[in-house]
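Reading a protein record of the kind used here takes only a little practice. The integers have meaning only within a learned vocabulary of local backbone shapes. With that in mind, consider the following protein and its fold in token form:
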Amino acid sequence: MWLIKVFCVISFTVLCATQNPDEDVVSTTPTILPAPTELPMWSVTPTLSVDPPAAQIYAGESVSLSCSTTDSPPDWTYLFFHNDQDKPLQSSNPSYTSYNINSSKLTDRGTYWCQVKRRQEPSAFSNSISLVVNDPPTPSLQLESGWLDVFPTENVEFRCSIPGGSEWTFSWYREGQEVLEKDSNMVFAAERSVLTVTAASQLYAGNYVCKGRHKSKAITTGNSNPLLLSVYAHKPKPSVIQTPKFDKMYTGESVSLSCRVSMSTGWQYVWYQNNKELQTTDKYTLNSPNQSNSGQYMCQAKRGKTPFYSDESETVTLHFSDPPKPSLKLVTRWLDVFESEEMEMSCEMNGSDWTFTWYKNGKILHEDFNTLFEGSSLFIMSATQAVQGIYSCKAHHSTRKVSSELSNTANITVYEPSKMTGRTKRLHRD
């Protein structure tokens, strides 16, 4: 039996060789195979990619979609689709493997696919890519320093912010003109997100806006919200109101000083006595003052983190003196009297704005049928032993909470009836 060995070499031509094991002769016979068939297009699935690879871009950015396959015969064409697989996008050249979107718009957002064709035979659709196109964010302009109406030399601080702010730097505009760093009164910080006007004047008044510029993309935002800065012509000067206001102030009499600035808001008030700072308060009150509280008082308004100070107010002079001491005088002539004898004493003070309290032996004396008060006078209608004692008086201001100290004293002695002989001689001498 013949043992046949067959060797096949795959090519366009197949050569098969047979060999008789008993012979050294090998016979060959060429065999012609048919040409290989074309790959069916339905089995081709292209790959769609996007550059830049971010799925989100801003309106105005450019983006490129690329369609690729394992093989790329020159007779293949490339189709791109947007949101509808039945309507291919128009391309300048169907043989291009990419589709470019220059200066993207919001209408370019959506889902994209690609497909290849060989003559009229299409491939399968590629993977999908979702493209998000948004308008650049709008910056937010905020006032950090507290007031948009400011005074000469006062600092003003603005802050411009965008979500994801680390990707942005900022430009600033006043009344449409860009604010430049060459102005020494304009200081930028934190990637230009903070603008400080270090010494305001009316030159810096106006509407301020900011814009964001992306650090890695050619994207600029629109204007932020505007903030209108007003600058007064002059520093404010506080006014001081004294309550109560008297030409002469007495020790122990409370007085309040109020400081006010009528322009703008946010003020704190610093008080000074004889140029020495006292305390910070809207109203400075002296309760039960003494003579050491006499002096020149003024106030100054301040506000802000690095305080801005107003001009100083006018000074108010306070002079505290002790109330005058009343003088007790005996209107009738004698301190030693006899029973049934009348007596009159007077408590005298300068001015007519005083009322009086009478004391006997250190206790307040009250009116009764025998003791009468009239103005500054004390009348004893008929002396008795009960009248005898040490008398004094005190003055009280009729419209102010001011009281004097006790007057000098008068020691009244009342004789018994048995001493009438002496009384008779005294009357006779008169």
Helices lie at 420-429. The chain has a mean pLDDT of 87.
